[in-house]
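This follows on from our talk about sequence and fold. I would like you to pick a protein and set down its sequence and fold. Go ahead and set the record down below:
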Amino acid sequence: MPPASIPKNDAQRLETLYRYNILDTDAEEVFDRITLMARSLFDTKIALISLVDRDRQWFKSHIGLDVKETPRDQAFCGHAILQNEPLIVEDASTDQRFSDNPLVITEPFIRFYAGAQLVSKDGHTLGTLCLIDDKPRQLRENDNRLLKELAKLAMNEIELKIFQLHDEKREKYQNRDEFSNAYNQKTFKRLLEAECSRTRTHLAKLSLAVINLDCLGPFAESRGECAVNQVAISFSNCCKSVTRRHDLFARLGPKKFALLMPKTSSESAEVVVRRIMSRANIFRPQINGAEISYDVSIGIAQLSDKQSTAAFFKEADKNCVAAAQNGVNEYVASYAA
């Protein structure tokens, strides 16, 4: 088993890695959320955020794998950091680089591997977001694109560990709305485009719900932005309690949200939406002991053949407006032809 070559800039790469103070830290929900999403979206047994240290690869998140690190000379990620594009190994048992690797001939019996690079702001590849399965697989170009977007999310979270005290730089790398912890609009747009492309390639189903919070009431309106953010926090908790690991939830504006549901028809999305509307009656925030009430309008659309991403979003948004016009706590759904 030939180990991966050591990059010529490995000393500088390691210096950058150590500057983040992330090695041997505890598990964090924000990283586990990304690997859970990756594993669900790609239907693999294992998803990792792997950082390549001097003599080991260490896992900041390891979903589907019990160990926290493996030797660097066995690491597929050691090969991945040598290139700029994702490393795809369709069947490790037939690949001369990996066929006699202990991770291939014993647990976890790696066959398929796909690793997208985690690249720091100064251009050093620290590791990968990678997918692993014990069966041979292929990854299409649009799958590649989505994997790279998820790797960017993971790297942005790593960058925040350095810039957490610098608001201006923090905003540049922020993936999430600071109040609701939902994905922000910028991040959602990237993920929406990537998931639409992937859905078209696989001829799969994809549904989108655009959600607007209406009629916050005079007390909330008088409290302005503070009350709106309290409602956003409460509503986000409501949505997270009923959505699935691979669903993408985002805050697009003060009172506007979106829920992207891969592998989901409009009919199935309606079930999720009804749960959200039911739970929204329970998650009511309070300010100074006063409960803030609000109404919910939701528009649902399912991606149609040859429909552009912009048209897909516009359809769901249009349905949201129609739901608001129909009355209180209503939703409107349209269906793929």
Observations:
- Residues 300 and 333 are 4 Å apart (CA to CA).
- The mean pLDDT is 90.
